[in-house]
Amino acid sequence: MIGLGTYAFFWQHSDRVPEPLSLVGAFEATRALDVDLFQICDYAPLEAMGDDRLRDAASAARDLGLTVQLGTKGIEPERLARFLAIAEIFDARLVRSMVHGPDSRPTLEQAGAWLRGAIGAYESAGVTLALETYEQVATADLVSLVEAVGSPRLGICLDPANVVARLELPRDCVELTAPHTANVHVKDFAFARQPGWVGFIYSGAPMGEGLHDYDHLLAAVRPRERGVDEIVEHWLPWQGAPETTVRTEREWTRRTLEHLRRTS
């Protein structure tokens, strides 16, 4: 299924715009685009919500016919337990996380111990935990970690844009993770020369105009055949003014959805 995530509304949620979009507003905007899936990913206000507010948000999503997924950072036992409880409120069947969190950088051995201790509860609840590819952990190490834990409810959230920062090739990342991919983050990316030709800026690009070979990802991972969801997000730089930035963010979302629907 094609979905939108909070990173597709990054600037619309931001306090840099005059009227930041609420979570329910993002739900409504998602539904208006004829999308049925929303991933609440790294959305700081979520963790500050009490259960009553969480239930209200979950009710709003259900009323709109949206399926919800969750996303956080870190795999400390208390964090995974808390997000499993939030997943129950939203009827979410996937939680995306990262091995390193805001306050923890476990060794791979420690990460394995934490995951083995937590994954049984996820299995019992029918919730998948998907660990994202990113630069702090080599893709090969992430795959080894998932294989060592060996749970059908532990997989990988594939975002090949992230691993470029550790000089990994996106295509290599896709091929290594393909058997374990449980979720895909969809965005294009590109390099541009900085002024004065003194280095590069690595940033987002409109879908289909950057370096991401998404056809290769579709062939290697086969997300539509395997029921792996594709979540749209962006790395959109600030465009100089709130109105221009929000308009561009919405346009990138529209273009990405068109691209995904055209290739389905």
Automatic annotation (TrEMBL):
Residues 28-255 form the Xylose isomerase-like TIM barrel domain. Gene3D superfamilies: Divalent-metal-dependent TIM barrel enzymes (3.20.20.150). Pfam families: AP_endonuc_2 (PF01261). This is TIM barrel protein. The keyword Transport does not apply. The keyword Acetylation does not apply. PANTHER family: HYDROXYPYRUVATE ISOMERASE, XYLOSE ISOMERASE. InterPro entries: IolE/XylAMocC-like (IPR050312), Xyl_isomerase-like_sf (IPR036237), Xyl_isomerase-like_TIM-brl (IPR013022). Keywords: Carbohydrate metabolism.
